[in-house]
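Journal club side-thread
Mid-discussion, someone asked how the predicted structure for our own chain would compare to the paper's figures. Pasting it here so we can look after the session.
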Amino acid sequence: MNDTAFPEEVHKALPNAWNPDAAVSSMERWLTVCSREGWGTCPQNLSLLTLLFGASWYFTRLVFFRGPEVTRYFDEPAFTEYSLDLLYRELVNNDHKTDLEQRFDLLRLKKNELMLRIFLSYLQEALNQEQMERALTRLAEATLQRSMELLWKEEDRSVQEIAVLAMGRMAGGEMNFGSDLDLIFLYSEKFGSDAGGLMRQIRMLLRHIALPAPSGILYEIDMRLRPHGTSGTLISPARYFIEYHSGEREIWERQMMTRCRPVVDRQALAAQALAAITTFIYARHEPEHLRTEILQMRKKVQNELGSPKGKHEIKRGSGGIMDVDFMTHYLQLRHGHACPGLRTPSTRAALRELNKAGFLDDRQSGELLTAYDFLKRLECALRVADLKNVSAFSTDIQDSASQRLSRAMGYLDADRKTATEGFMQEYLKITRTVREHFTTLVGDIEELGTGG
């Protein structure tokens, strides 16, 4: 099929597609499939389907795999109500299979369909970046809860006794496409001494969540932030978790704990454990020691992972997402002992609270929130293509992936080189602004010694 034979709404949508070439190719195949299967015009909203085909190969595959089962979402009003209860009910509905593997396959399909609906709302501008991240985070929470229920019957005490703490983006409600789950598992010693049995259960849970399948995986898992990292046990007694974080810990460990939140906690075990260590996380840190430690860790990450050859690193590079994170970590740890409002796991909420408390002025907080949103939108555009945890793109304005990114970020000039140049200039301006604020508020990374 020649693209000149496309319906008018497809032609109107193509100039706004992130990747017009991919949109054309997939639309040709889709209309052929619809004709062969007798589906007619499916969906009616071919404009939105065109944008989807141009934005994400991952969701394009899902559309071809599920057909009318998912294309009906394109014709429905944008779905903007993403409460945890609603998403959980969606995951439970139509779960009629008795075989565990089949039930997990259904869970993967339903989770991917819900993620597709979230992205469609984003493409229609019914959800902004912050709202979309909140919806993706709630979906991850609902999926984790449902996964635990599928593995362990309701009467099994482990469902009641095991608590889960989320770390990082999940804790802050700021997950993006391709985000993994940073988790810490706790149990009450009332459960007994069968730690080995509990670890076997957790291993089974993690295996099912991260298991590759034709319908995709649920999530990648990261357990490195548990006590003692990769050498630690998968699940710890709550008492041990409290003892560990109540002792002398490195500043970087205190940083990580500013991004911690209970997500599965039927007996309030995780909430109680987190409350017990809050005064240690937000202790009166010696200001110069705190500043130096934050600077040294930031420099280490930037030197090791933030400067890939020929690429811009939007997360770890100079002026990237981690600059904003580390700034908020520093100010939260610096002032959190006296200002409880700063004790939030969300970077955006921390920036707003820091402004409210007077530790950031209006210009600083405004520019940092704008920059953070820009960088997270860019992260979305990078990752949604195939839901991979990537954070770098080519500095070459002739690179096709960089040109696609420029379109995703609103640079839709017909001349792709001109559009990409404009996008690159904005990216460099944003990251320079972030690094300037970082230097003002925390310090100059470049002034640290080489051993930093």
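Post-session note: Strands lie at 163-167, 181-187, 221-222, 235-237, 260-264, 311-313, 392-394.
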